Structure formats: structure tokens, C-alpha cells
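ugh ok so i messed up the first submission bc i forgot one of the chains. this is the corrected input, ALL of the components this time, i swear. 229 residues overall. if the numbers dont match what u have on ur side tell me asap before i send this to the collaborators (the ones from the other lab, u know who)
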Amino acid sequence: DIQMTQSPSSLSASIGDRVTIACRASQDISIYLAWYQLKPGKVPELLISAASTSQSGVPSRFSGSGSGTDFTLTISSLQPEDVATYYCQNYKGAPLTFGGGTKVEIK
Amino acid sequence: EVQLLESGGGLIQPGGSLRLSCIASGFTFNNYAMSWVRQAPGKGLEWVSAISARGDFTYYSDSVKGRFTISRDNSKNTLYLQMTGLRAGDTAVYHCAKFSRTVVVISPITHWGQGTLVAVSS
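and heres the new structure output, hopefully the right one now
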């Protein structure tokens, strides 16, 4: 099975900061990587698919990059509404493993 | 608008069985693969099971294989998860989720339901 490792598990940053979250797959998953945002009391929202394709309606400050085993989600300028937990997910094949999550807070 | 409405959760004793349902609307149900994803209290997201659009391919995580069965009734726009041999570790909110394509692989999950809580305790 493919393991997904996210880092850091949590971070605290100031409004306007650039935030970077890393996700590493235990084997090559090409670009079959999605990023989700989960806010308390809400359903997960798909931000990025195919490693770098932003979904319609997602603010442009969110971007994804990477391929193979190493991926990154970047928030270019952190906003208060970005407080959430972010998950990466491999969807190259079953099992469709999630990373452990990164909790983003405002300093 | 895509809507996924789960039901069937509740408090169940260890070893018991439960069937979750998810009624879908706002899209052509038989054109999309579907999945169940759970989140235990204070924990992260865990993929549980998935099924192709026609129901001919099913997939399970190792943690539920042999105990859970995913199925769908395309005539009723409904997804199911039959859970047997429930354990305390199965306690979680179970979300129904829709893929972007007919197949499970190389297809991201695009929409999620609010979820239904399953609590396994004596």
C-alpha cells in the first residue's frame, strides 16, 4: 500500500504569510494527488486535483505542485478564513490513502 | 447542486451490524463512482471503501476488508455500506463521497456528504 506522509502536522503563521505544506508518497503516484481543506463542522472541500489543478471557485492564493513522490500545497498569503486542517490524498489506486493532515492556525 | 445525504448511523454494541445509506441528488448517480470515508473523533480522514459507477468493481481498506460491504442501487440513487463485526475502532463519522468519474482509480473525490455518526460501545 502507498503511504502518504504530511509535514508539518501543525503550523501557526501570521496573516499574509506564505504557508507551505509538504506531502510525500511512499512510491511514485505520478500526479494523482489531491488536496482537501477541512474546517470544523464542514465537509471537506477539494482544493487541488492532479497535483496542481485548482478547482473552480478556490481562491488563487492556493496552489499545488509536484509529481512522483513529493508534493506541496502553498497558500501565498494566509487569510483568517484559511484556518483549517489540510489533507493530501493519493488516488492513483486503491487503497486511496490520505496523509495525516496539517492543522493551520493563525499566530 | 450535488447533494449527498447519509443516514443509518447510531450507537451499536461491539460485534453488531449496521447499514449506512446515502441518497444522492443533483447529478446522474449511475455515471459516477462513489466512496465511504470516515473520520474518528480527533483523528484524520480515513478512506474506507469505494465502488465503480456500475457496481462491478469494489475496493476496501485493510481495516474493514471482510467485515464491510459496499453496494449501490442505481435505480434508487443510493449508496450503501453494510457493516458487520463492528469494533470500538470503527467509531467515526462516515461520509459518503462522489468521485469525478465512473471509475475509482485516477479519479479524485469531488463532493462529500455531512456524514453520519457510528458509535461502537458497550
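quick check: The two ends of chain A are 37 Å apart (CA to CA). that seems consistent at least. Chain A touches chain B at residues 1, 32, 34, 36, 38, 43-44, 46, 49-50, 55, 85, 87, 89, 91-101 (CB under 8 Å).
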